[in-house]
Write a structure and sequence with these properties.
CATH topology: TIM Barrel
CATH class: Alpha Beta
Strand content: 15-25%
Strand order of the largest sheet: 1-2-3-4-7-8-9-12
Number of strands: 12
Order of helices and strands: HHEHEHHEHHEEEHHEHEHHEEEHEH
CATH architecture: Alpha-Beta Barrel
CATH superfamily: Divalent-metal-dependent TIM barrel enzymes
Number of helices: 14
Largest sheet: 8 strands, parallel, barrel
């Protein structure tokens, strides 16, 4: 097979985008007919994007570039209703996505508030009961996965979100020396030992419920994977710690969101790690992104200009039998876009999806 280069992929992307424009004139395409490249009877990797309910413009754009699967954010919706209303609320959300031609492959972030769980504060037992009710409700409506995190006090964290990148696009950066100067948060110092106690308490409560319900629990790495971060310990920071977490309550549904740039930031060999965990059927969801640097300082890149062999990683997932959802993550903000949601503007995601499709078509990797 001829060697595939970034230039070839981009050329394929432009062709794909032109084809997508022509398809908009096709009544079948306008009606939302799925765009699938997976041979009948075979499972393919599920190209997805993350959206909240009501983001209809993003729904349409995703469908126009051939994305058939969505990762939903439901925290805001479920936090406003009683647990008895979770099924009804999720049913309405699922219907909204399906009306736009999108199948929900999972939910991202916690489905219900969980900060007291992570910090071990009074009221965590009530949060856990709501969490268990949300797991059951997700199962009843047919949403099979939760991508959750255990970043206490501080979630996704960057010290700059307007760093000029290629052509002036705005990207984000983490510099631990800057973070240290920002001092402690309102939570003061929280030890890693406390986080280990809290995640053990949480997993022992929810994994049996999730296993019975058939809901996959896919833990996202800490981002950045630095501990402590402004005084707060972090534990999802290495492959070793992930293995420990999965052994707290061994279960086929206790697994991983493989955010590959996070594992790279840890200093892990992401190809070796992906092969290990794909072989164990522990990768339930992939965040496809790249960074320059690692550890104490790194910067987000476009999907097509970072140092990682992205084509190789897609081949690794395919060879490992991964057929779950994958979404491009943390694209720079491009010309004409607001930077009010750093990493989550849409034009860079359009580029990323086209880039991914070009790679997978070239390597004959099935996707849907």
């Amino acid at each position: 097979m001829p060697r595939l280069t970034r230039r070839n992929y981009l050329r394929g992307t432009l062709t794909m985008l032109g084809t997508a424009g022509a398809a908009a004139l096709d009544p079948a395409a306008a009606a939302g007919a799925p765009d699938r490249k997976t041979p009948p009877g075979k499972a393919g990797i599920k190209l997805a994007e993350v959206f909240g309910p009501g983001e209809t413009s993003r729904f349409r754009l995703a469908r126009q570039i051939g994305v058939n699967h969505a990762i939903a954010t439901v925290l805001n919706s479920l936090s406003k209703v009683r647990s008895e209303q979770y099924v009804e609320t999720l049913t309405k959300i699922k219907a909204e996505y399906e009306a736009a031609g999108l199948t929900i492959a999972g939910v991202e972030s916690h489905p219900v508030p969980a900060e007291k769980i992570k910090l071990g504060l009074p009221g965590r037992d009530e949060e856990i009961e709501n969490y268990k009710a949300a797991i059951v409700a997700l199962s009843k409506v047919g949403i099979p996965m939760i991508c959750y995190n255990f970043m206490a006090g501080l979630g996704w964290y960057r010290t700059a979100v307007n760093v000029p990148g290629r052509g002036g696009a705005l990207t984000s950066e983490f510099d631990n020396s800057v973070a240290e100067k920002q001092g402690l948060t309102q939570w003061g110092e929280v030890s890693e030992e406390k986080l280990w106690d809290n995640i053990t308490y949480f997993l022992k409560a929810v994994i049996p419920v999730a296993e019975k319900a058939g809901i996959k629990m896919a833990l996202h790495p800490d981002d950045p994977p630095n501990s402590p971060l402004r005084g707060i310990g972090r534990i999802a920071t290495s492959a070793k710690n992930y293995r420990r977490i999965m052994n707290i309550v061994p279960s086929p549904i206790n697994g991983i969101t493989f955010c590959q740039a996070n594992f790279k930031a840890m200093g892990e060999d992401i190809e070796v790690l992906a092969r290990e965990w794909c072989g164990q059927k522990k990768i339930f969801f992939v965040h496809f992104r790249d960074i320059e640097g690692q550890g104490a300082r790194f910067r987000e890149t476009f999907h097509d200009n970072g140092p990682t062999d992205m084509a190789r990683m897609l081949q690794v997932y395919h060879e490992g039998g991964f057929d779950g959802p994958i979404r491009p993550d943390h694209a720079p903000t491009m010309e004409g876009e607001s930077n009010d949601r750093p990493g989550y503007a849409m034009v860079g995601k359009v580029l990323a999806i086209g880039y991914m499709k070009g790679i997978m078509d070239g390597l004959r990797i099935p996707y849907e």
